[in-house]
Prior knowledge:
Bound molecules: pyridoxal-5'-phosphate
Largest sheet: 7 strands, mixed
Helix content: 25-40%
CATH class of the largest domain: Alpha Beta
Oligomer: single chain
Amino acid sequence: MIPFVNLTGQREKYRFELEKAERAVLDSGCYIGGPEVSALEKELSAYSGVPHTLTCASGTDALTLALMTLQLQPGNEVIVPDFTFIAPAECCAFLGGTPVFADIDRETLQISPESVRTLIGKRTKGIIAVNLFGQCAPFKELRKIADEFGLWIIEDAAQAFGARILDSTKGSPTSHNNKACAFGDISITSFYPSKPLGCYGDGGAVFTKDEALAQRVRTIANHGSIGRYDHQIVGMNSRLDALQAAVLRVKLRHLDEELAVREQNAALYDLFFEEYNASTPKELQVVPQKIAEGNTSTYAQYTVLAENRDYFIQKLNAAGIPYCIHYPTPLHSQGCFGAPIAECGTPLSANGNNAEWASRRVVSLPVCAFTNVSGIIAKLRTN
Length: 383
Ligand SMILES: Cc1ncc(COP(=O)(O)O)c(C=O)c1O
């Protein structure tokens, strides 16, 4: 069986370093906070170029902390992409806000700035832009809109820690300011095990360049306390374990090597699908998610759009290749956001938006640095 994400292969490769780091924490008697967590926060800041990094218990908590820090109030509207994992919309609704769903671009599958613009109203406070499947959202356009209407941006880089937007003037990777987690007023990531930078449980982090916002995130994450047993605002308990921090410090040292292999794997798939489409009728073609000009991707997923998904899935099943459908239902069709039961999930309307169009076609393939993509392609060629 080919795993969708080969976490055991990764552990095998780093076993010596991981076991040493894990043992040091277990022997230290310090399991919450402490030097491992502080060291990780410094290293994440050095990597991303964002001066303030605050680790927490998950990506979902990181989004909640960001929204609480930006003082989202009941009735406020937040524009989120219609096609993504539920967390950004869920966290907004959890705090009493109203998620408003923006459509996506059919090629990059990222939130569409044109759609965002049409949804701004009196109650709009901000935008949560998701770096879907590993490439950054179109932040240049989104920032222009946010500045024009006085909105904040939360960058959800749960799938994209390590992604970059290259400097088009030089055509080369630029300063840290062009790395994921540097584009939001507050940015977040997730360390869920299968993420490009994942730990061995739940974990997340919040990033900001603004010292006052950073202080507020830290206060809210620690029960709203500004001193021992002195609680000035209502907060929550959200923290990363020292053991997870130690694991992440090891994996962070290897992140760039892994991202390079993910890019090579994606290039192999790109080439294969180019050849495949050249000899396949249009109605059976399979088109990879477009990586926008100037973007790099962490390839959290290698996602394709299959014109006839059932046919492509039959091929994958015949070849024994695992796949996922990220995501089968646009958020506006979820029952928790008020879609009538009859409209929840599939079937979707015939003339729906791009999010519906994509959710009928997407298929994600294994792409991590410990996946034998050449082997997968060989199986695809013979099935
Ligand atoms: C885009 C996005 N945002 C937020 C999250 C939530 O992260 P976590 O699972 O760590 O809570 C995820 C997790 O899959 C995600 O993909």
